[in-house]
Amino acid sequence: MLKFTCCSSVRQFSDPAQAQVFRGIQRGFERECLRVDRSGQMARTPHPAALGAKLTHPWITTDYAEALLEFITPASTDPAYPLDFLTDIHRFAAQQLGGEYLWAGSMPCRIGMDADIAIANYGSSNAARFKMVYREGLGLRYGRAMQTIAGAHYNWSLPQEFWPQLRECCGGSGSEQDFISARYFGLIRNFLRYGWLVPYLFGASPALCKSFLQGHPSDLTELAPGTLHGPFATSLRMSDLGYQNHAQDKLGIGFNSLAEYTQALELAIRTPDPYYTELSVHDGERWKQLSDSILQLEAEFYAPIRPKRVSELRPAKALATLGVQYVEMRLFDLNPFIAIGIAPEQSLFADALLLMCLFRDSPPITSREQGENDENKHRVVTRGRQPDLQLLLHNREQPLR
User: Fold this and answer.
1) Are 135 and 120 in contact (CB under 8 A)?
2) How do residues 248-306 score in pLDDT, each as one tens digit?
3) Exposed e or buried b per residue across 136-146, where buried means at least 16 C-beta atoms within 10 angstroms of its C-beta
């Protein structure tokens, strides 16, 4: 059975007075969900005007598709506040849908052919056109069906006053921001090692609509007419059937340091991919994608957790210049049994898991270990409910339970 221990620095915060600093943890959510019509098919109507301008609204926007809503909460030190805020957004949006509904699951409903999926229309301004061409590129590269998958992202940061206390017991050279960034990257590396716990405990997408595969073969079995499933799957959303960018694998974007990460992102944005070049950037005067690089933008890089910084600068530049401000954990499937898609217990578990990842020793991840981490995630999302499932630890099989 797999066990977890933390480094000695956690003892400093076991004292109740010292532990008060964790009341300053900030957390917020981004929750995606599809609009569907009365027949259970993805809505083909425009974004409801009553929800505001999706290009500029701070809390209600769209992700990839015109029908894929995204609800955003402000960050708060009160664990209940983001969920209450999300409830209010959800209730307001539901009242404006005019006979449509919000799809409860992560994997989409009946979506029709790929070409039938309309990308989000943000208008005619330069900012709007930029966002739309980026989405055209995503559809061209990966197919539009993949972009209709919904999930919940958890934005999380520790209070500024926590870091001097941690540095006092851990030591470290460089500026305080260098220390903060290094510790966040240590957290991220451990999350890559142990993040499979999230789909194992909270995965909620073991099945999908056959229309999602767009006629492509799979190893799934039929659960009911039109519905395919993995008998032991936990999260097909996080499997190879869900989010994927195999071209990114060649870059080996790693998380062993802030510099390594940002430099690899910059390289991906500058490096043409032969397949994307063949697809072409333009069709006459029409833009098909922003570029033929492996990544059009940093946001195209998919990872289960990402370092973030609020800034007007480009994301990679902001991180390299200003350092890490918070992390975005991206592994939560939508909970179909909760109206807003995420339960309070999931938020509290994420807090505990992220703190464990912070306090646990976090050496650099080798290419061998990264392969092991990827394999463990693959096993959990495709076979996590298998009673005798084993995961890899230092190249050895270990029973999960």
Assistant:
1) yes
2) 667 789 999 999 999 999 999 999 999 999 999 999 999 999 999 999 999 999 999 99
3) bbbbebbebbb
Q: Residue 70's CB: how many other CB atoms inside 10 A?
A: 19
CATH of domain 8-399: 3.30.590.20
Tokens of 179: 């220390």
Contact (Cβ atoms closer than 8 angstroms) between residue 266 and residue 316:
yes
Asked if residues 358 and 22 have their Cβ atoms less than 8 Å apart, the reply is no
Facing residues of 65 across strands? 119
161 C-beta neighbours (distance < 10 Å), count: 9
Joined together, the tokens standing for residue 78 give: 């009160």
Tell me which amino acid residue 238 is: M
Domain boundaries, the chain: 8-399
Which tens digits make up the pLDDT trace of 357-395?
999 999 999 999 999 999 999 999 999 999 999 999 998
Q: Could you tell me how far CA 201 lies from the centroid of its own chain?
A: 17
Predicted pLDDT at 2: 52
Please give the single-letter amino acid code of residue 175. S
pLDDT tens digits along 52-82:
999 999 999 999 999 999 999 999 999 999 9
- For the chain, the average pLDDT equals 94
Q: How far is CA 215 from CA 18, 61, 75, 145, 188, in A?
A: 57, 30, 41, 12, 36
What pLDDT is attached to residue 5?
A: 54
Q: How far is CA 99 from the centre of its chain?
A: 30
Q: Is 52 left (phi over 0), alpha (psi -120 to 50) or beta?
A: left
Q: Which two tokens stand for residue 241?
A: 């059937």
d(CA 234, CA 210): 17
Q: 């008060």: which residue's tokens?
A: 20
Residue 6 has pLDDT above 80, yes or no: no
Instruction: Return the DSSP state at 98.
Output: T
Q: What is the pTM of this model?
A: 0.95
29/370 Cα distance (integer angstroms): 28
Residue 274, classified by CB atoms within 10 Å of its CB into exposed (0-12), middle (13-18) or buried (19+), is exposed
